[in-house]
């Protein structure tokens, strides 16, 4: 398999795992088509080909269907040298573990954002703060997880910081407070051009809409931010 094959990514607009894959595809300048589906109303053709009925999947050529964001990211990286994944077996294994670590953070971050239960909200916030402290330790004297150079593992964390950036003006308590290393890391990641191009243009609108419509704890604690014109400016135009 190589990049001469046609690549079609099947995605859901606010899926963070799809964002990871999109970020790598944009970083590696790979040509692809994208098909969006609604995960609450999955089309039959998708159910037939996606082994876990989840996005993202990457259709290569006519027959091969890759699933799981980590596997897709590594595949894209392999066919577009120079590789962002390290060669050293120990480093590679550590990085793969951190792929999974980022998935856990993303899962809990989304639950934190969309929960309607106050108690769960508080517990998730504590859990996230602990993980971010741990990540801060990993980033001691480093710009990226593996040092000065960007690696594939870093692109796994792009959705985390895109979401945190979007919510910065509205989080009741900044969960990256006193976390200078993580703040710098987040800035380095979100200023990569692939982090800007690797997501759908209406991502923020859709997230905010979801947070409002579900009457989440986050919305209830900051309704004016979600409804007021000043919020639209902060959130959508980076002010
Ligand atoms: N481990 C998977 C997680 C993918 C995932 O959970 N995708 C969600 C959307 S964000 C999905 O397709 N959910 C549909 C479902 O669970 O039925 C990956 O990394 O690709």
UniProtKB/TrEMBL annotation:
Span of domain GST C-terminal? 88-218
Q: One Pfam family, please name it.
A: GST_N_2
Tell me where the signal peptide lies.
none
The cross-references to CDD domains, in alphabetical order and at most eight, read: GST_N_family
Q: Name the PROSITE patterns for this protein.
A: GST_CTER, GST_NTER
Return the GO cellular component terms, semicolon-separated: cytoplasm
The record's catalysed reaction(s) read:
RX + glutathione = an S-substituted glutathione + a halide anion + H(+)
| Domain named GST N-terminal: residues | 5-84
What is the protein name stated in its UniProt record? Glutathione S-transferase
Please give the organism: Paramecium sonneborni
């Amino acid at each position: 398999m190589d990049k001469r094959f046609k690549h079609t990514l099947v995605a859901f607009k606010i899926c963070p795992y799809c964002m990871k894959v999109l970020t790598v595809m944009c970083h590696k300048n790979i040509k692809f088509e994208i098909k969006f589906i609604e995960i609450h109303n999955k089309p039959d053709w998708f159910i037939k080909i996606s082994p876990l009925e989840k996005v993202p999947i990457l259709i290569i050529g006519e027959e091969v269907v890759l699933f799981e964001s980590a596997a897709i990211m590594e595949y894209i990286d392999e066919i577009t040298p120079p590789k962002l994944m390290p060669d050293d077996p120990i480093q590679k294994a550590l990085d793969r573990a951190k792929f999974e670590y980022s998935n856990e953070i993303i899962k809990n971050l989304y639950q934190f954002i969309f929960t309607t239960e106050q108690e769960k909200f508080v517990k998730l916030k504590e859990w996230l703060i602990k993980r971010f402290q741990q990540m801060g330790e990993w980033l001691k004297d480093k710009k990226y997880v593996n040092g000065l150079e960007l690696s594939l593992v870093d692109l796994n964390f792009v959705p985390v910081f895109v979401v945190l950036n979007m919510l910065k003006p509205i989080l009741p308590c900044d969960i990256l407070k006193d976390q200078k290393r993580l703040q710098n890391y987040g800035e380095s990641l979100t200023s990569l051009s692939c982090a800007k191009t690797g997501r759908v243009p209406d991502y923020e609108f859709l997230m905010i809409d979801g947070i409002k419509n579900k009457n989440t704890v986050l919305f209830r604690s900051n309704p004016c931010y979600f409804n007021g014109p000043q919020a639209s400016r902060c959130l959508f135009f980076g002010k």
